[in-house]
Amino acid sequence: MADAKGGEEKYFRDGAKYVCRKCKSKFFTKVEAEKCHDSHTE
Ligand SMILES: [Zn+2]
Question: Which of 17, 23, 26, 27 could join 32 in a cystine, given CB atoms 3.0 to 4.6 angstroms apart?
Fold first, then answer.
């Protein structure tokens, strides 16, 4: 897997959860967090 932007993650971890970096929404899976993040850009 290649990172699109110099290794910056679309989410960060908060305990067991994944948090969208854009809107700080919390998800139980990283796929959901990445989808959320993608929904904010383009
Ligand atoms: Zn989001």
Answer: 27
Q: How far is the CA of 1 from the centre of ligand 1 (A)?
A: 21
pTM of the entire predicted model: 0.76
Residue in the block written with tokens 């110099």:
6
Is 22 part of any domain? yes
- Expressed in angstroms and rounded, the spacing between residue 3 Cα and the centre of ligand 1 is 18
What is the structure's pLDDT at 39? 97
Contact 6, 16 (CB under 8 A): no
Rg of the Cα atoms in the chain:
10
Question: Range of 19's domain?
Answer: 11-40
